[in-house]
Sequence to fold (263 residues):
Amino acid sequence: MICTDAPPSEPPVAHWRQQFLRELAQPLPWVEALFDRQPDMVFSIKDRSGRYVSISQACAERCGLVHQGDAIGRTARQLFPAHMAERYMAQDEQLFRTGEPVLDNLDLTLFPNREPGWCLSTKLPLHDRAGLIIGLACLSRDLEEPSRSGMVDARMAAVVDLMLARHAEPLGVEMLADQAGLNVAQFERRMKKIFRLSPSQYLTKLRIDAAARLLQASDRRISDIALDCGFCDQSALTKQFRALTGLTPLAFRRWVRDIRPEA
Fold:
């Protein structure tokens, strides 16, 4: 007897991925354990009220706590010096208000010896099944050598804040260096030491990141996205986008929606 039924086809990548993630048990413990082994990084999750839902042991110890569980339910104001906590909370509110992630911010933090130092922080919104933002995840990486050498200070952090907020504008390197209290060569060296990118490369990265978020989250025309993100036209966006991602903006939009379909 000959069977004419075709063998079952493999599920699409998006379906396979979703199924794997649904079956994954207890995601938080392994995430915490992963970052507990990274002494120069701290990880946390907060709810919309700023209360810690999860925190790495390294972060807890920097706050003077013995166990990471002692931080659960507390806020940054209760764990960090006031000037640090106020900045963290302002970033959180901006993320909750706009829905936009906070990427590569220069922030003051507490190093393992509980002395202040600088770090690079990234915060991403966390959504419920209905798509509403219910919290955020934060990962910070210590900048020990730039902190020790004095390459990062409040003026440098303020310039990075300006670049993050106004990356779509034509920001000149001379103006940015002047804002940081440096000459152009000094500013270039500091940016490369901190971000491993020149100021112009860093601005391009910010613009590409912004374009990628809009390509994923909206159906707006690519030409409009290009202008809104600081590119002179769609061709300029496509050239830079392909150089950094290997994909055109249209191919990226199709790809990211295939692996992250709407719920």
Summary: The mean pLDDT is 88. Strands lie at 41-47, 52-55, 102-110, 116-127, 133-142. The longest helix spans residues 199-217. The first strand starts at residue 41 and ends at 47.
